[in-house]
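Example record used in the benchmark description.
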Amino acid sequence: HARSGMIDSLERAFAFANDFLAPEDVPFRLTAGDEFQGLIVDPKRFVDAYSVLRFTSTVPFRLGVGLGELTTIVSDVPGAMDGPAWWQAREAIVDAHSATARDAFRGFGSRSDVILDGLAAGLRATTGDWTERQRVVSLALIAGVSNFSEAAEVLGVTRQTIYKQSRGMKWRDTLLLRQAFHAAIEGREVR
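Model output (structure tokens):
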């Protein structure tokens, strides 16, 4: 039962994260057991999808992220793509399993990899103990509502409820981490 609950939580998180992807991306999905993959063509789009995965998953997971080229065509068939992007991702997931970090980034440049690993640790620490309600509030806030009043209206609660939830979930810290992620991704040098 615990394993099926984990899979259900991941699949719900994928459904939310996949809403942030573009048609040329390959959606997140399970490939074997509890392993999953996805392909995001533009790394800038990754920050929103990654944030939503972290915001919505109620179970811990490890993530290896690789940046690089593909030597095959883009495919939604698991295992059908190959190239430096996949090799970097494989190295990252091995690192994520062997270290205390749960997420690892490779291929962004050695300095950027370390910065992204640290930002990921901060985001996990900030979001890891969120309640279900806080996770729902985070989705409303990231999905384009412009303020707490609008989020309250969308969720059918009071503005004060949204404010209280946002304080409890350290929403401002979370936004700063997301902004830092965007800056690190946009400032990278592809190798």
